[in-house]
């Protein structure tokens, strides 16, 4: 996203890279030592995903304002985000149904 909007030098990218590497290192280390399972570490991964999503939306809005981002790219990204939200909703619904069964 940063490349397509000409914002490669933004401070968000090194921060996001650092968070991703910390997440990976913690998950790998704790799993290898038997302290935690990858499934239990998903909360940290999801925090990282939310930060990535916020950064992507910020860069998309900034790219649209500066007319450096193709509208088709925005529509495709919005469609993908809607698909992920629908998938998450379906997952939560199935999980709730299993809890009551």
Overview of the molecule:
This protein is 74% helix and 0% strand. It is mostly helical and 101 residues long. The protein is flat.
Write the layout of secondary structure elements.
Elements: H1 12-32, H2 42-65, H3 71-100
Helix pairs in contact: 1-2
Task: Kindly summarize this structure in a few lines.
By secondary structure, the protein is an all-alpha fold.
Label the structural class.
Answer: mainly alpha
Described by strand count, sense and barrel closure, the largest sheet is: none
Low-confidence regions: none
Output the number of helix runs.
Answer: 3
Q: How widely separated are the two ends?
A: 43 Å
User: Mean pLDDT score, rounded?
Assistant: 78
Proportion in helices: over 70%
Number of self-contained structural domains: 2
Write the element-wise H/E pattern from the N-terminal end onward.
Answer: HHH
Q: What is the multimeric organization of the chains shown? A: single chain
Mass-distribution shape: flat
State the total count of DSSP E strands.
0
Query: Beta-strand percentage?
Result: under 5%
Task: Give keywords.
single chain, 101 residues, mainly alpha, 2 domains, 3 helices, 74% helix
